[in-house]
Design a protein that fits this description.
alpha+beta; five-stranded antiparallel sheet; 26 helices
Length: 591
């Protein structure tokens, strides 16, 4: 062992220890490791930040942006409707959610797919009177499984392709991962639908569905002759919005209040509806039926044209400018250029006219508007911001633009017309130009810690190869597995990668294990693809802990899961994936 090999292996061991310890965030650990590698002389200073320009890193960032656009544009709303209709039984409910998540994850970032479907899962669980914890863990696992279908489904696949391209001069195509990943995904879904959900421990501590005790808001919306609700009855309107979790509470017509709205009279252009629901559902209701908010402020079109659209949830503090005043007195629109979407008191929506609502300390209100105007208004009000709300603000209906841009990029990359990062870059520019997402949202949608992790670790992984440390590890594995059948060696690489991925970020696992797999293939005189595929599958399958994959961590709070709940469902799932994947790898990628 040379000095450089000892230094890089010692540094790698220290990084793995810090990743597992978890006291310091992984992007800080990765960047510190990169700087240490430069100071130790195993990475050239001029090459230290080459990883940030790697096509794999750029592709991951662009996939996250496009995922945001798919969500904001309402492109997946039809899929959400299908999910809610398939919630009759628990297996059917899990199958509808899991199948949808897996399919979406194949063509967008799997974290984004889970983020879009979690509200659907929680709402459909309430409607079906089914515990949410039975749905959320299978949903998270299914979204991870679906990422194995395509090149862009998960960062490990993108990295594996980049490593193959750098080593052999040719990366993988869009659907090269589908034969093996598809079989593993199907086997995993069948297990989750038939058995997996039954292994989830009963009686979680909480569902975490209401972060601040407010789940339902009241909004006041106006009709016009051009809106889709004009001329419809309340009964017809409820059918049009049956997939939205919104209740039409009151009708106001020419100043007269109808607490029980007449259900069979056509709605008029001057009518005002009082609706109740979750903020995101009210937003869908207003956008899809082309209604307008009656709470004052700029129109949705004006907000979108202003650049950065935003929505924020506020709590009224004692001494606030709002305290003791009514909505009408505040004149949110003329004075502050923001719209009041809804108000709530003591965790319950206000059901009367918004203009008559008098603010008290502790009330919660939801405002929307251009980001600059909204920030200025919040500062003037003296309220405490609780959280930003990710509302589409009228951008639903632009899903066709996003789908066309996304499908065109995928097709162009799959046919080899342009490289994948270029295709996705063009699609990203298109959705910004058409106003589906703003420039602020472009930057906000990128998971920058993951980008730093990837950009910092790629040069460290390169140092493993350039110093010969990768070959040293591979030779040790070859010596210990001498005489074993090929299927067992592939299986051992898959299991080792999977185990490492349960405690490390999957991108970090890929950077460590892929060069080792290539070196083992070279030592045995085999084709590199089966070994790279084993690493790709193993790095994507982290089901034993909540820290192995971001999706596992995302459902931990809402599902009320304990740390030890994951392995009960995840251990059989990982065993099934190994049993299915090893023969599939050798069948589709012979040694």
């Amino acid at each position: 062992m040379t000095l450089d090999q000892g230094l890089i292996l010692g540094l790698l061991g220290a990084l793995l220890g810090l990743f597992i310890w978890g006291k310091y965030r992984y992007d800080l650990v990765a960047l510190t490791g990169l700087l240490a590698a430069v100071l130790l002389g195993v990475v050239e200073p001029g090459q230290a930040f080459d990883g940030f320009g790697n096509p794999a890193v750029i592709t991951v960032a662009l996939v996250l942006i496009l995922s945001k656009a798919l969500s904001a544009s309402g492109a997946i709303d039809p899929i959400a409707r299908i999910v809610q209709r398939g919630a009759g039984t628990t297996p059917g409910h899990i199958g509808a959610l899991g199948g949808t998540a897996a399919l979406l994850s194949g063509f967008m970032n799997n974290v984004g797919a889970l983020a879009m479907l979690m509200p659907v899962a929680l709402q459909s669980a309430r409607k079906a009177e089914r515990p949410a914890h039975l749905l959320l863990m299978p949903l998270a696992f299914a979204s991870i499984l679906g990422g194995m279908l395509t090149l862009i489904g998960t960062p490990p696949n993108i990295l594996i392709s980049a490593i193959r391209d750098r080593t052999l001069g040719d990366g993988y195509a869009m659907f090269d991962f589908a034969p093996v990943g598809g079989l593993a995904m199907l086997a995993g879904l069948i297990y989750l639908i038939a058995v997996g959900w039954r292994l989830i421990p009963a009686g979680p501590k909480g569902t975490g569905e209401g972060n601040f005790g407010v789940d339902v808001y009241t909004a006041e919306v106006k009709l016009s002759k051009t809106c889709k609700a004009y001329g419809k009855t309340i009964t017809e309107l409820e059918k049009m919005s049956e997939d939205m979790d919104v209740v039409i509470a009151k009708l106001i017509r020419r100043g007269r209040n109808y607490p029980a709205p007449p259900r069979h009279e056509p709605l008029r252009a001057s009518d005002i509806l009082i609706v109740e629901g979750a903020a995101e559902e009210i937003d869908r209701f207003v956008a899809e039926l082309e209604l307008s908010l009656s709470g004052g402020g700029p129109s949705l079109k004006e907000i979108l044209n202003s650049g950065d659209a935003a929505a924020v949830e506020l709590v009224v503090q004692a001494g606030s400018l709002l305290e003791g005043r009514t909505v009408a007195q505040m004149r949110f629109g003329p004075h502050y250029r923001v719209a009041l979407l809804g108000v709530a008191r003591n965790g319950r929506a206000h059901r009367g006219r918004l203009k008559d609502f008098q603010f008290r300390a502790g009330d919660i209100l939801l405002l929307q508007g251009a980001a600059d105007e909204l920030n200025a208004a919040v500062a003037r009000f003296g309220c405490l911001p609780l959280r930003e709300r990710d509302l589409s603000l009228g951008r639903r209906g632009r899903g066709q633009i996003v789908l066309a841009s996304f499908a065109g990029a995928v097709a162009a990359a799959a046919l080899g017309v342009v490289p994948l990062p270029i295709a996705f870059g063009v699609a990203t520019v298109a959705i910004v130009v058409f106003g589906v997402v703003t420039l602020r949202e472009v930057y906000d949608s990128v998971d920058w810690p993951v980008i730093v992790l990837l950009g910092a670790l790629i040069p460290v992984g390169g140092a493993m190869e350039s110093t010969g440390a990768t070959g040293l590890i591979a030779n040790g594995i070859l010596w210990s597995t001498e005489g074993l059948p090929v299927w067992l060696i592939i299986g051992l690489i898959l299991v080792a990668t999977m185990t490492l991925s349960d405690v490390l970020n999957n991108a970090a696992t890929t950077v460590v294990m892929a060069p080792i797999g290539l070196a083992i293939a070279d030592g045995l005189g085999h084709a590199p693809d089966p070994y790279l595929m084993a690493v790709a599958v193993g790095a994507s399958c982290a089901f034993l802990t909540p820290i192995g994959h971001q999706n596992n961590a995302l459902v931990m709070g809402p599902g009320g899961y304990a740390f030890g709940d994951y392995w009960r469902v995840g251990l059989p799932l990982e065993a099934i994936i190994v049993v299915v994947s090893v023969p599939a790898i050798l069948l589709f990628w012979p040694v």
